[in-house]
Amino acid sequence: MTDVRLYSDGAARGNPDGPGGYGTILQFVDNNGELHEREYSQGYTRTTNNRMELMGVITGIEALTRPCRVNVFSDSKYITDAFNRHWVDSWLKKNWINSQHKPVKNPDLWKRLLKAMEPHEVHFNWVKGHNGHPLNERCDKLATSAADGTDLLDDDYFVGL
Q1: For the segment 28-55, what is each residue's pLDDT rounded down to a tens digit?
Q2: C-alpha torsion sign, points 53, 55, 60, 64
Q3: Choosing from 21, 23, 43, 53, which is the catalytic residue?
Q4: Is 89 a catalytic residue?
Q5: Is 129 assigned a catalytic role?
Q6: Which residue ranges form the domains of the chain, and what is each CATH number?
Q7: Can you give the pTM of this predicted structure?
Q8: Catalytic option among 20, 23, 56, 75
Q9: Active-site residue, 140 included
């Protein structure tokens, strides 16, 4: 299995109902020791920060073309804790109901992320945001630039709420 590092960040202006974006960086080192890197970003007209955090991770994992061992680095406790504290396992057992007995937010994206993860071995790592981590800072720049851009998509699920 190829080892992949996925760095991701989300941003939203006027959270929870303004433009937003995500930024993602995928990295792996090939058998010759050469670093390969790809960046992804996209902005949306109306969304939330948490939806953009999820979209960044989803986009990176969906870009993988074969099973990989993926280390996700995110400054989103919403994402890292969901897996590292096994919240997702509980949500699945309770049919997408959280510990407060309310529907889990963003079920469309959580389900999409779980589907994307199926062929991979994925580990989630939290990094402190806006703390000088070079790749997290790059992802933040990608995400905010996308949110501030003109090529914005509609977040159909969010708009329909």
Answers
A1: 999 999 999 999 999 999 999 999 999 9
A2: positive
A3: 53
A4: no
A5: no
A6: 2-159 (3.30.420.10)
A7: 0.95
A8: 75
A9: yes
